[in-house]
Amino acid sequence: MNAKSGASYRRYDLDWLRVFAILSVFIYHSTRFFDPGDWHVKSPLLYFDAKVFQVFLEAWMMPVIFLISGASIFYAMRKGGGAGKFFKDKFLRLGVPLLVAVFTHASWQVYLERISHHQFQGSYFQWLPQYFDGVYIDPGVGGNFAFAGMHLWYLFFLLIFCILLYPLFAWFKGRGQAALTRFGNFLAIPGVAYLLFLPTAIFFILIEETPPGEIDPGGWPMPVYMIFFVMGFVIVSNERLQSQLLRMRWVSLVGGVLMLAGYLALMINPATFQLWDDMNGPMSCIIVWFALFTILGFGMKYLNFSTPFLSYANEAVLPFYILHQTVLLTIGYLVFQWALPAGLSWAIIATTSFVIIMVLYEYLIRRHNTLRFLFGMKSLPKQAVAEVGKVVPAQ
Fold it and tell me: pTM of this prediction?
């Protein structure tokens, strides 16, 4: 399950899963124009089917991203360097692009929301002084200042989680290593790992209706993501647990499909919608662990390999994520000025946005160290920068 090179380890399966998960976020946001809920920019044509598709993605999309983030912390801490290096790396990787976004393109997203919701008329620069009027929370709620960078709330809270949980992770790597091993071995007992839905559901129910639990980007109360983050660290620390998840992958898949099918059936039936709404939290907490174990199990089985594409895509993941919603909203706002069928609108928005993001990444960000720094990437040696047409594998 590990790709070894000297003292370093590369989990190619986690790299692939990270790429697929961020692509899922892009697809998810490309459909937000068309669901019945509020969003920054909306299509004149709305469909409940878009919401059903989003609920499917919400069942696992952001949980797997936080799980992979926790796993990455485990491997990062194996390199040593102590707390100083850890916090420096996290600030450069997460904090710098977040600050850049807050004071640049996040304001553009809020502006598009204000003009598309008919809350302002005028140019972006006429509106810009209003950006600092109050704190932005959700569409139609709060002020304008996007302190968490709009869709970059993931970076914001991941940075907070890293700061808050570093003492626990450091203890796990030191004097608490035996406790970590015992916990992992306990979860490796056949069937026991599925019981993780119990603490997740209890935590979900306790915090769902109170701040910050009521803040639920990506479909989950924010503190619940901390559970997935910690469990990512725990899972990759224990070979027995990973081997068990590999063996359980088909059980996880079948269980997850059956649970998710029942969950969606309750949702789309008007007669059972209220039951779905009442049971949403506990059912989600069961489904998510089936989904996570399915994804990890099949990832370990089939994705433990590298290609030049993976090296390129894995390095592009963070800039792609940072840019994607700003570009989507811009293209979406322009496309909705035309009277087009919803399917055609979505195809134009998704395809055009993807191409623009990749062009910006390839010809601006990837090839210039200043922009690499601002987007949370490592700088390249001068010789590598000079070879602008060459794909440089992520380190």
Answer: 0.92
